Amino acid sequence: MGGINLIVDNPFFLLFLSMLTGILLGKIRVGNFKLGNSGALFSGLIIGWYIITRINDQEVVDSLNSTFHTFFIFSLILFISSVGLIASKNIKEIVKRFGVKFMMIAFFITFFGFIGTYFLSTFYENKYNFIGIYSGALTSSPGLATAIESAPEFQTSITYGYSIGYIPGVLAVIFAMYFIPVIFKIDIKKEKENLLAKSVFYKDDNTGFDFISYMFVIITGILVGKINIGAGINFNLGITGGVLLSSLILGAAGKLWIFDFRMNYRVLKIFQEFGLLMFLASVGLKSGYRTFTTLNFSTFMLMLFSLIIAFASIFVGYLIGRYIFKMNWIILSGAVCGGMTSTPGLGAAIDANDSEEVVAGYGATYPFALLGMVVFNKVFLILLS
């Protein structure tokens, strides 16, 4: 037990072990499918579960979970800021071409998820679990915060539903990014060629990397994310939305006063890869114990419902975007991830398509999806009251 204690007392060891084993797991190919960077999520889940089950000291467990959450936030900032700056050079053209379509995709994904969740809740006695499942299936922390704020007396039920629904929601988006092109026979290479024929993607390796400007992007994003928008709704973009918005806008501006936001592509790619691996590993580490130890028939059914809600919402977004709006898959894949407010999904989309252009769709759809989650959570609570 002494050796185990030396390991669990060092969360950095657990983090890098999860990342290392995740990279190796992600390289395993079954047919045309491999987990890629998402392997870090699964290795983190297993390691997180195993280590926590070996600890009898609750103080150590709480300290570990707190550190894992810090890893989670830091890696999220690293990943989002780098992909936002990479995609910023094309964001104006992408939004101009697809415009209101992003808003409609966000609406239909969050609305269909809401309708499906509400329907399933009618068969259960504790309907407030499904408020949490709705936010979990669409991986929306702002949705959870809105629900808890609006119905604090049901916080336990709502949080439980979210914790049960989150991992299936994450897995649904990740797998969808790999399997949709297979199911619908999408030629990713051709989609990229069609998109790039109309826009030259920014990969200038001759530019430098200004850490002062990079820190300014992050600080600005954190401040923007804290601004409440809309009277009575208590809606804000949070760290993810704020940093994404600042990196896209400032990156598109290029230069502002003493700040130069034209960052070296290769450096940003390193930040992106490391941030994503760290993000996925930390999600697994802090969720592994709860995910595996709460498994029984009831929780299994709730997780299954969350998976169904997530997949249904994803396919609604895909079908509308592809067959009604005629959108290019590279941009649509990012829009679907944005509609699901799923950062792990964004990482999977970048990995599966081998293209950072997906971030433009994600960035343009994400704020509307956050707003949709806030509004539909409030509607859900009104219907239950």
TrEMBL record:
This is YidE/YbjL duplication domain-containing protein. Belongs to the AAE transporter (TC 2.A.81) family. It is a multi-pass membrane protein. The chain crosses the membrane at residues 12-28, 35-52, 67-86, 98-120, 164-186, 207-229, 235-258, 270-289, 295-320, 327-350, 362-384. The keyword Repressor does not apply. It comes from Thermosipho ferrireducens. Keywords: Cell membrane, Membrane, Transmembrane, Transmembrane helix, Transport. It is found in: Cell membrane. Its main location: membrane. The lineage of its organism: Bacteria, Thermotogati, Thermotogota, Thermotogae, Thermotogales. PANTHER family: K(+)_H(+) ANTIPORTER SUBUNIT KHTT, TRANSPORT PROTEIN YIDE-RELATED. Residues 15-180, 215-380 form the YidE/YbjL duplication domain.
